[in-house]
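User: Hi! I have a protein structure encoded as tokens and I'd like to know what sequence might fold into it. I'm fairly new to this, so please keep things simple.
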């Protein structure tokens, strides 16, 4: 009855690819802004905008991950409660003095 989901683990290659992709993207945008034929304040504005977008993306990813992990914890607690109720319940236990409903004897 215990159906604990298998936790997915990212490989080192996947992690490395994600970090490399992020680094290349940031460098490409920075080089594009640097070589842009515009005033310094326009390039500064675009640089600040890229930094703001990057930090916002990290924050959004963290919030989504935290919400998903919280949902998994709640599901596991609910599952553990249900398993405890199911193990304590005995439909063939006679109802009478010294018993609580259809569960095990209290004494």
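Assistant: Happy to help. Inverse folding works backwards from shape to sequence: for each of the 107 positions I chose a residue that suits the local structure. Here it is:
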């Amino acid at each position: 009855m215990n159906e604990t989901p298998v936790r997915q683990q990212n490989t080192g290659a996947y992690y490395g690819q994600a970090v490399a992709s992020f680094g290349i993207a940031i460098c490409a945008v920075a080089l594009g802004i640097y070589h842009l034929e515009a005033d310094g304040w326009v390039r500064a504005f675009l640089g600040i905008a890229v930094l703001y977008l990057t930090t916002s993306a990290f924050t959004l990813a963290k919030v989504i991950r935290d919400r998903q992990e919280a949902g998994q914890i709640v599901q596991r607690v609910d599952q553990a409660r249900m398993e405890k109720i199911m193990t304590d319940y005995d439909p063939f236990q006679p109802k009478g003095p010294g018993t609580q409903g259809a569960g095990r004897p209290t004494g």
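A useful reference point when you look it over: Residues 63 and 69 are 10 Å apart (CA to CA). Feel free to ask if any position seems puzzling.
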